[in-house]
Amino acid sequence: MRAKLVFAGLALSLLALLPGTAGAVLGGQPDTTHPYVGLAADGTTVCSGTLLSPTVMLTAAHCFAGDGQGATVRAFFGQVPDHDAPNAGRFYFDPDVGTDVAVVIFAPALDVSGGSYGRLPSAGVVDGLPMNTPIDLVGYGAQGFQRGGGPPQTIPPVSQLTRTYAQTTLIASNDKRSPAFLKLHNGACFGDSGGPDLEPGTNLVLAVNSFVNSTVCGGDTYSARVDTQPVLDWITTSVGLHGGSLLH
Length: 248
Known about the structure:
The protein is mainly beta and 248 residues long. It is 10% helix and 33% strand. The chain is built from three helices and 16 strands.
């Protein structure tokens, strides 16, 4: 499962951004209401993530797992990220190959989101959601594609990466590929990996964007559920082991 996630994941290579950068959740609009969603980068790859507290960001494991446990990841915040104010943290991923959840631990604590943070769900909350339940997506991923003479290329925006919001709908709480993933109608794209799937109008993180089955993000989105007890236990344990705190 890990190899499949790395191959098809929604992480965005910085090499693919040259000479410009890529934009936003497909079909989305500029987001000003989720200041706790930030951009994470290691110098090669760009993903999205959710601050759960001043010391903890939730993101996707496949984004930076190749760098190894404890790798340095920098996070940037703002609807247009402040690239002059990087926040360095340490990346830790779940070694369970059936999941795609990771955390970045910051020391010292950050003061970047105005006291607003994402919130972890109760165990099993996604199981009770019916098909076509609305889901809010937030991230810094690609906005669209241009074609001609080769593989589709991401369309660079007028300026740099921006945080974008869009709403999609749930297809299934437990995808047949794995009960650790939920399945959504399209919306997320490259660069949105690790960004939150939120209960509409709330800060409740149900899952993190993981992968799609289309090279132009035209297919379904698969997201790693955060509400399973093993994932919640791993987050709590990992945060404690590495000097973070979920309190704010």
